[in-house]
Specification:
Blueprint: E1 2-7, E2 16-21, E3 24-31, E4 34-39, E5 53-54, E6 58-60, E7 67-69, E8 75-77, E9 85-90, E10 95-99, E11 103-105, E12 112-114
Antiparallel strand pairs: 1-10, 2-3, 3-4, 4-9, 5-6, 6-7, 7-8, 9-10, 11-12
The chain binds FE2/S2 (inorganic) cluster.
Length: 115
């Protein structure tokens, strides 16, 4: 079920924001191709990626500097990881909606959360 979580008035292209949906941390990234939503939890040791670094292309975890492509969540360093992604819609008024389906599995399968 999609939930309204932010607006493009407060998340411009080239910016990122951490939000919490039903107690679950989600990283929003507004790129030139649209808004993307990922798990806001580094697959290495769980740090909030919204508190890391963002250069407009790459998200870098502040804790141990793992890096991810901001458009896809694919690992840059290391390349073998992938951030969990969520469906995003932006309506005609600029509101951002994210669908949290209920479960995700951390890279490597070591964690399974139910929302
Ligand atoms: S917790 Fe993110 S790189 Fe270690």
């Amino acid at each position: 079920m999609f939930k309204k979580v932010a607006s493009t008035d407060s998340l411009w292209i080239g910016e990122r924001m951490g939000v919490v949906i039903d107690g679950f941390p989600v990283l929003l990234v507004h790129m030139d191709d649209g808004v993307h939503a990922f798990q806001d939890q580094c697959p290495h040791a769980g740090a909030l990626l919204s508190e890391g670094y963002f250069d407009g292309v790459t998200i870098t975890c502040a804790r141990h500097l793992w890096q991810f492509e901001a458009k896809t969540g694919k690992g840059v360093n290391p390349m073998c990881v992938q951030l969990g992604r969520y469906a995003v819609k932006v309506d005609e008024s600029g509101d951002i909606w994210v669908d949290i389906p209920g479960k995700y599995v951390m890279q490597g399968g070591e964690k399974d959360e139910t929302l």
